[in-house]
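Teaching soon. Got one?

===
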Amino acid sequence: MVEMDCSLVNKTKSNGILLYADLIEGYEALFRIGQEKRVNLVLAIKDDVSYREASPFFNQVLRLSSIPLGRINQVKIAILQALSVGLVKKGEGGIRF
């Protein structure tokens, strides 16, 4: 699925993906996919253990709060956090990494 998303990034001339990454197993493999496809992966993570596992591989890891929210609201919070720390910028055609 991530590889397909990377293909879409390249086709749309975007340069990144904001990815909710608590459920990912194998952050090193995910890192390699991003490097191979030349796509900037920004991870949004709520779980402490996942955050610690992902941090050695990714510089752009957002730590989401543990407030119980639905999926759409988690995405909104992640986008706001990414905007606030400068990982994402509003540009021509939408939000850019």
